[in-house]
């Protein structure tokens, strides 16, 4: 330890000394020589304790009995210059989780793992994992991480809970009912040998007049699956229920986050507009030339070099996608095409004068999401070519048009 002045507490640090394998004494010292060659050493100065935050949010901590407190940014670490020769207790808490979790550290501790319990503003529990390791002969490294992250990429407000629980899991509040959460949601099971399955539903703000239902449960095992999120309409409404299809991908984290399982919810369909046109999309049953305010509410617009999540407005109707070019005057709706198959083709759209413009459509499957990429077909040959080598003019057209 080292003190700047008697009035301030001393700064403590660890020193690790390791002898290196050079220079070789047999070569440096000749026969009969009395010279002594100082071997090379590596001297490393380390803090007594290093706190590593592997959470997607800020981690706040305090040392019991002292004024030592602070916060660690996501993915960062901070040194703690504390006395490890005596017992000390670290308290941890997060934003919206005022319930404190404590870690008791004994002097001369060795590597171990532990769980701490935090609680949110509604007293719902969240368990975090802590991994303690000792390096360089005495420097302590404390790593804090969550067993599960839930990432919502669907564009829908969603809530989650363990199957069989009566209330939503910790960290979810009224705002999650209205809008999609941007940051990953920390999740844990109360018992490691409990039923490791989850259920999800959409927020009440998506269809305020309906009643969201919990989906069929799924297990948090590595792999991909698909679930349907249903919203029951009110009894006086004769329309069918709203259904939103989402893909679920469960994977372990990468690198230093490998101890955390990441559960990603993504839209079943993702549309990418890589053309130079401003494109409007619609389900085939709503693609009409008539003025229909109800149908126009279901239209989606994608600007150049943009992407958007797509959900079928009516799952009981034909699941065919249509599009038209908004930057072309008089552009008509294209024919409907399937987007739940891996495929690539060219699609023509016509304007009011009958002129055709071709676009390239490529559909690929990425985990549980179908990616629909719309691009220009200028660099591709036309899908059909008609050469008239006869001596009479001919007229051709598509049957049924």
What structural keywords apply?
3% helix; elongated; five-stranded mixed β-sheet; 43% strand; 401 residues
Quickly describe the structure:
The chain has three helices and 28 strands. With 401 residues, the protein is mainly beta.
Description:
By secondary structure, the protein is mainly beta. Helix content is about 5%, strand content about 45%. It has three helices and 28 strands. The protein has helices at about 25-30, 175-180, 295, and strands spanning about 15-20, 40-45, 50-55, 60-65, 70, 75-80, 90-95, 95-105, 110-120, 125-135, 140-145, 150, 160, 185, 195-200, 210, 220, 225-230, 240-250, 260-265, 270-275, 280-285, 300, 305-310, 320-325, 345-350, 355-365, 370-375. Strands 14-12-20-19-18-16 form a six-stranded mixed β-sheet, with no helix packed on it. The chain has a five-stranded mixed β-sheet with strand order 6-3-11-10-9, with no helix packed on it. A hairpin with an 8-residue loop joins strand 19 (about 240-250) and strand 20 (about 260-265). The chain is elongated. The termini are far apart.
